[in-house]
Design brief:
- The complex is a heterodimer of chains A (261) and B (258).
- With 261 residues, chain A is α/β, with parallel strands linked by helices.
- Chain A has a single domain, classed as P-loop containing nucleotide triphosphate hydrolases (Rossmann fold, 3-Layer(aba) Sandwich).
- Chain A is built from 8 helices and 10 strands.
- In chain A, helix 4 packs across helix 5 and helix 7 packs across helix 8.
- Chain A is globular, with a radius of gyration of 18 Å.
- Chain B has a single domain, classed as MetI-like fold (Orthogonal Bundle), CATH 1.10.3720.10.
- In chain B, 81% of the residues lie in helices and 0% in strands.
- Chain B starts with 9 loop residues before the first helix and ends with a helix.
- Classes of the chains: A alpha/beta (261), B mainly alpha (258).
- At the A-B interface, strand 6, helix 3 and helix 5 of A face helix 7, helix 8 and helix 11 of B.
């Protein structure tokens, strides 16, 4: 059964200063199976973040609906954890307190909170940084904390909006492996938005390609690479073939997007 | 040396800061002790110190200082108790803001000193009147500045908290308030400085104690040394409270400096 069902979802932003309304997202349908890892790949401004924000409940659709486990999504909630592209750690809380934020909101006893926090500190490799303030961390460490914060809350589904977009290439590669490693062990349902083709293939079991604005889901590509995946897979012939195919699809969209602006 | 934004060393910064004070006092000494200005209008630094000493030891000026500090702190704390929560509510909840904001924006421009004659009619020249002047002078400023600060909470932080399961009231308590606490403390520090101006004005017009009362009394006696001493005392107290506030903020909000 599908964990997440998106039906006929569209979003139109009202025009600013009497301008034309902006169609950010054309009616889209999408089903995500439980424990699946899907990536949504598209050029910038294609509405992929809008789609994710509506799933999170942070934005309202113009038509259609989102269902998680059969329940219609109307507002944000702890069942849909999210990691943002911009740094969103609470600057007044330490790394450990940030990870415990959702657990405290849930009213979990302190002992349990500490145990869960410790286990996620370990999983994202932040041992020794528990009592650091976010300002003292590098970008990669901040995003690792943000991932731990979202996962510690044990959401039904994890939504990631270009979480590694602001990181340098090397850090980005390491973060991909880290997140994939956690997923291979825990098999959380994940929707990951990115504009990076390699990242989209490496992480996912399915890549959805979105067209340029107004965004719609253009193709749905299965990635049948074995798990656990190692970074060396990025140079395998299968990977290269997928990359060539998706590069072609994205290129067409990117060009349309450039021409439109 | 004069390259924009080039930092200056700790020792040099201190020396530069002190040297302005030295120059200022030197200029003042030359003008007064050199006989360029009549002592009736401006006392020289030495007379000022002698007058100050006599104020403190013989005329009970410490009591006046205490009274003034009490008034400022009392009025300011009363204003803050109302203004900070209201400002937070306005920043967080737009209907609350829509209800209060136009009036507060209007009231902010009403000069507190112009209320003094009216307040004397209402509350006499006792302590209530002094506190009211300070409250009128600081309340609306704090409300508005806190509301703006809280209203500008980074949206992503609020959204992140929602996806972690925060309720609407938890967003205010656990995100908007801690996120803006340093800025609110900074606003209080700023407005406390303004409150000092209001209290002196209130004491100049109708009072029987306080630094402002001493100053207006000294005017009648042409004791310019005492007036200048009083003004300098105000400056020093302001400086001390400023330092104390800054130190308190550094201690309360270590995450800001980390």
């Amino acid at each position: 059964m599908s964990k997440l069902v998106v039906e006929n979802l569209s979003r139109t932003f009202p025009g600013v200063h009497g301008g034309e309304p902006v169609r950010a997202l054309e009616p889209a349908d999408l089903k995500v199976a439980a424990n699946d890892f899907i990536t949504i790949l598209g050029p910038s401004g294609c509405g992929k973040s809008t789609l994710l924000r509506i799933v999170a409940g942070l934005d309202q659709p113009s038509t259609g609906q989102v269902k998680l486990d059969g329940r219609v999504v109307t507002r944000p909630g702890r069942d849909r954890g999210m990691v943002f592209q911009s740094y969103t750690l609470f600057p007044w809380l330490t790394v450990a307190q940030n990870i415990a934020f959702g657990l405290r909101e849930k009213g979990l006893p302190r002992r349990e909170q500490d145990e869960i926090v410790a286990s996620y500190i370990d999983k994202v490799g932040l041992k020794g940084f528990e009592n650091h303030w976010p300002k003292q961390l590098s970008g990669g460490m901040q995003q690792r904390t943000a991932i731990a914060r979202a996962l510690a809350n044990d959401p039904e589904i994890l939504l990631l909006d270009e979480p590694f977009g602001a990181l340098d290439n090397q850090t980005r590669g390491l973060m991909q492996e880290l997140l994939l490693g956690i997923w291979e062990r825990e098999r959380k349902t994940v929707v990951f938005v990115t504009h990076d083709i390699e990242e989209a293939i490496f992480m996912a079991s399915r890549v959805l390609v979105m067209s340029a604005r107004p965004g719609r889901i253009k193709s749905d590509v299965a990635v049948d690479l074995p798990h656990p995946r190692h970074y060396t897979i990025k140079t395998s012939p299968e990977f290269s073939a997928l990359k060539a195919r998706l590069t072609e699809e994205i290129r067409v969209e990117a060009m349309r997007s450039v021409e439109a602006h | 040396m004069f390259r924009p934004l080039q930092p200056v060393g700790q020792a040099a910064r201190f020396a530069l800061g002190v040297s302005f004070f030295v120059l200022f006092i030197a200029g003042w000494s030359v003008a007064t002790l050199g006989g360029y200005v009549s002592p009736t209008f401006l006392a020289d630094p030495l007379t000022m110190l002698a007058d100050g000493w006599s104020l403190l030891t013989e005329q009970g000026f410490l009591f006046d200082i205490g009274m003034t500090i009490w008034r400022v702190v009392g009025g300011f704390v009363l204003a803050a108790i109302v203004a900070v929560p209201l400002g937070i509510m306005m920043g967080a909840y737009k209907p609350v803001e829509a209800f209060f904001e136009p009036f507060v924006s209007f009231a902010r421009y009403l000069p507190a000193s112009a209320f003094i004659p009216l307040l004397i009619l209402w509350a006499g020249i006792g302590e209530t009147q002094k506190l009211l002047v300070i409250i009128i002078g600081s309340l609306f400023q704090v409300i508005l500045m806190v509301a703006v600060a809280v209203g500008n909470t980074r949206r992503e932080l609020v959204e992140a908290a929602y996806t972690l399961g925060s309720t609407d009231s938890a967003i205010v308590r656990r995100v908007m308030m801690p996120a803006n606490a340093p800025e609110i403390a900074e606003i209080l520090r700023l407005v406390l400085g303004w409150a000092w101006t209001y209290v002196i004005v209130a004491e100049l017009i109708g009072a029987s104690s306080g630094i402002g009362y001493m100053i207006i009394n000294s005017q009648a006696l042409l004791a310019t040394g005492q007036i200048i001493f009083g003004i300098i005392v105000i400056g020093i107290i302001g400086l001390i409270s400023d330092f104390a506030f800054k130190a308190l903020n550094r201690w309360l909000f270590p995450w800001r400096l980390a």
